[in-house]
Amino acid sequence: MALTPSRVIRGHIEPESAYHRAEIETGGHPPVRLNWNESPFGLSPKAQAAYDAFHTGNVYPAIEQAELRLAIARYLGVDADRLIVGAGLDDVINTLAMTVIDPGTEVIINEPTFGVYRSLFELHGAVVTDIPLGDSPDYALPVDGIIDHASERTRLIIVCNPNNPTGTLFDQEDIVRIIESVDCLVAIDEAYAEFSGVSHTELADRYDNVITLRTMSKFAGLAGFRVGYGVFPDALMPWFRRAAPAFFNISAPAAAVATASLDDLDHLRANADRIVSERDRLAAALNALDGVTVIPSATNFLLVALPGPDAMPFVSALAQEGLLVRGYDDPGLRHTIRISIGLPEHHDQLVAVLERKIASHKEGIVAS
Ligand SMILES: Cc1ncc(COP(=O)(O)O)c(C=O)c1O
Question: What pLDDT, on the 0 to 100 scale, is given for residue 229?
Fold first, then answer.
């Protein structure tokens, strides 16, 4: 007897439409990934040494991940007992969703923002409400809209600061106003904190409804190892710990590499500084191009508005040279691309390709 999906699949889950994702055509060039906000740098020396020395793959990781959590606690200046770690920040957000979402309860987000929030919370049966950010280039946080909308049904508000994909940084006073005005959880995703220089850990200390979320994927260059973490309210820890997976889903080599990275902070901070100065150099070069506007960024990527209503021809032209950048289908972002900060030589090439493409784009407009 044939099994019908509806017999076994949860009713609210939509099937994945892009199940077989097409490979991007790079015209035979090796792909340069400027589309995932990864670090262009390898492991720090101490992290590399820990990776090379790892030899205990036959035994389970430390059940409490005590060493890693202690290293993070020292780094942030918080109590290790308030830390939930996970296989990337996505996994920590999953633990958050597992713990707070009853089907039909609400999560408020502010689009355009990190796409995983909607996708993941809807998977858990939440009603995800978008209170959109203001218009470009400020993309202001709709503080009053969030406060007015939040109700008894709202379990969680997620503020991404700085925000992906806009790169913009909201005022801390605005976030505090939300925190003080609502009686639900407010999670601040600061995946890019090390590039913005702004931390909200102090808010997680001051308010019992605040969670701060971070990752080792970006500034520490550990995207492939999958290590993220969050600072959670003390009083709710027994519930979050109940929902967190065994070993916090972190493999032993990933824990060893992450712990060693946090012992190599001078190296990581120097890398973050290099990325920030290269970001500013690239932003200036792009802003000098005809019809191009770079949104001011506090992250390791730039959102760039290109001439014309649709940036996809630019995405394809760059891909043909091996340069992968992120394009968007959403109407509000269709004229933009997001460029992760990589190496200067790749940026120089990218600016040259865009300049040529913009010139031919203008000729096309004049000719038609
Ligand atoms: C805002 C934001 N939060 C969370 C994540 C997920 O990070 P991780 O690699 O730790 O799962 C990302 C990754 O791009 C991100 O941009």
Answer: 98
- For ligand 1, say whether the CB of 164 is within 6 Å of any of its atoms: yes
CA–centroid distance for 42 within its chain: 19
Based on the fold, state whether residues 184 and 207 are members of the same structural domain: yes
CA of 125 to the centre of ligand 1 (A): 21
Which domain CATH number covers 297? 3.90.1150.10
Looking at the fold, whether 178 and 93 belong to one and the same domain comes out as yes
- The reply to whether ligand 1 has any atom less than 6 angstroms from the CB of 92 is no
Q: Count Cα neighbours of 139 within 13 Å in the Cβ-side half-sphere.
A: 24
Total number of domains constituting the chain: 2
Q: Taking the model in full, what pTM does it have?
A: 0.96
Strand partners, 293: 305
Coil, helix or strand at residue 303:
strand
User: Best of 36, 39, 89 to mutate for ligand 1, by most ligand atoms within 8 A of CB?
Assistant: 89
pLDDT tens-digit readout, 63-86: 999 999 999 999 999 999 999 999
**What element of type H or E holds 269?**
helix 265-287
Structure tokens at 278: 């290269």
Which pLDDT band, with edges at 50, 70 and 90, does 21 fall under? low
What residue numbers bound the domain in which 349 lies?
24-41+266-367
Please check whether residues 110 and 197 belong to one and the same domain: yes
| Closest ligand 1 atom, residue 218 Cα | 9
Q: What is the pLDDT of residues 257-275, one digit of tens each?
A: 999 999 999 999 999 999 9
Atom of ligand 1 nearest to the CA of 91: 11
Domain boundary among 243, 263, 283: 263
